[in-house]
Amino acid sequence: MSSNEARFIPSLDSVAKKLHLPFGVPDFIDNMVKGASNDIGERLIKTMIITWDATGGGPFAVSAAGGLAANKAVDASMDLFLGPVFEQLLRRLGVQDVPFRASLCASAIVGMGTMRWVVRTDPLASAPVDDLVAALAPTLQRYLTGEIRKPAKETPR
Questions:
Q1: How far apart are CA 133 and CA 157, in angstroms?
Q2: What is the largest CA-CA distance in the chain?
Q3: Which DSSP symbol is given to 156?
Q4: pLDDT averages per 10-residue partition of the chain, 157 residues
Q5: Distance between CA atoms of 74 and 96, rounded to whole angstroms?
Q6: CA distance 93 to 61
Q7: pTM for the predicted model, two decimal places
Q8: Does residue 102 contact residue 90 with C-beta atoms inside 8 Å?
Q9: Contact status, residue 60 vs residue 116, Cβ threshold 8 Å
């Protein structure tokens, strides 16, 4: 990339850089909440898979290639997704139980990412984008806007 090309690339926030996104997290969240709320899960998962497929796995592949153990990659990815991405998105959506829903959403994305780009387990690793979107979007949609039952607090024994 020439220096002339580089100056036309918008400055990305630190989370976007770590997640290897070509767009800032605030822009991503804005784009997710612009459309119909009943298909946010589909838009979100499709955007993530297409983006990371184009970069060979994005943060998941980078973590694995950097010599980090899979569990370290998972921990780092969970931290990046929880507050900066999903808690912000869920607050914009105005739903209840934001921390719990954010954890569920992040676990779905990080689990899929780990299996597709770190562990590279087939058939998930080679599945077409549309197949993954069809399989994962309904669950992610429920975590984002649907009915969920928050776990009861444990009582001391």
A1: 42
A2: 65
A3: P
A4: 39 66 78 87 91 78 53 60 83 93 90 85 94 96 90 63
A5: 26
A6: 30
A7: 0.75
A8: yes
A9: yes
